[in-house]
Amino acid sequence: MAEQSVRWGILATGGIAAAFAADLVDLPDAEIAAVASRTAESAEAFAERFGIGRAYGDWESLARDEDIDVVYVATPHSAHRAAAGLCLEAGRNVLCEKAFTIDVREATELVALAKGHDRFLMEAMWMYCNPLVRRLKALVDDGAVGEVRTVQADFGLEGPFPPAHRLRDPAQGGGALLDLGVYPVSFAQLLLGEPDGLSARAVLSDEGVDLQTGALLSWESGALASVHCSIVGGTGTTASVTGSRGRIDVPDGFFNPERFVLRRDGRAPEEFALDPADGPRNTFRHEAREVMRALRAGEKESPLVPLDGTLAVMRTLDALREQVGVHYERP
Fold it and tell me: Across-strand partners of 271?
């Protein structure tokens, strides 16, 4: 018996919203019921592109639409608090893009709203829902590499981006850390939890956002994580986890990997590859399926992307920004 379709609303019409919508269209148990943008023209064009029945030229109308089961918030992260908060207050369930918010204060407010209105809320950290990343975490948790000693992860874009670009605009939460650094930090915390200490250095732009940031995170266990992000240099987006008895290497695209290699002392290397049945490596389907599974089960958050974990990552990002001197003016 087929599952009843989950009715999605999409808030925003940019590139990430389009990529997510394209994957939803391919899911037989998902329906894109409505889309909203700040302008009717943008919403109508998006609706026509993806065969969506209702297009709203304002966020409020989408938030009030009671024929929507969950809203995917795909605005820049500077608007996540306002957009997701509007939907939660109207009684909608929400999947909100990452970085979850500008800072942990806004993130805490959204979590409180979700709990106060008894709604589902999840950060759209698609990496955590990826089957291969889940396999990697299971191996680490099962002791495949022994006690974790070091984690390394990097994410950089070549650029250059002009000063007016979103990635360099302080008003939009610009900089490498929130847009890209959230991935290496989330990868490290997926495996080790919230760090006990950290140290960071950054190169700042004339606008006051970080062009690149490097950080060392530390845990009382003795584990260390080296994380790096950049909008002025394209990195390999690699990751590695080294333990007392072995190592896991993710050769490229650690946040949506195609394969990784487990190297254990005294054994031949073992390669783990993405199952073709799971679809292409850059799919958002795993994330969407997890949201729909949780909604059908009556859950208010996902065990794969728990809200406590999201808040912990935001605390780390806040501490790193404070150390490197990146500050955003917020109301």
Answer: 261
Q: Is 115 a catalytic residue?
A: no
Beta-carbon count within 10 A of 161 CB: 17
**Alpha carbons within 13 A on the beta-carbon side of 110:** 35
Instruction: Find residue 191's DSSP bridge partners.
Output: none
Work out the mean pLDDT of the chain and round it to a whole number.
Answer: 96
* H/E segment holding residue 64: helix 59-64
Q: pLDDT for 135-164, tens place per residue?
A: 999 999 999 999 999 999 999 999 899 999
- Written as one letter, the residue type at 9 is G
How would you class 298 by CB atoms within 10 Å of its CB: exposed for 0-12, middle for 13-18, buried for 19 or more? exposed
DSSP string computed for 122-153: EE--HHHH-HHHHHHHHHHHTTTT-SEEEEEE
Label residue 197 left, alpha or beta by phi (over 0 means left) and psi (-120 to 50 means alpha): beta
pLDDT tens column, 39-62: 999 999 999 999 999 999 999 999
- State the pairing for strand pair 224-230/210-218: antiparallel
pLDDT exceeds cutoff 80 at 12 = yes
Helix (H, G, I), strand (E, B) or coil at 213: strand
Q: How many residues in the chain? A: 331
Active-site entry in 98, 115, 137, 300: 98
What would the DSSP string read from start to end of 145-198?
Answer: T-SEEEEEEEEE------TTSGGG-GGGT-SHIIIIIHHHHHHHHHHH-S-SEE
- Which is higher by pLDDT, 239 or 1? 239
Please state the pTM of the whole predicted model: 0.96
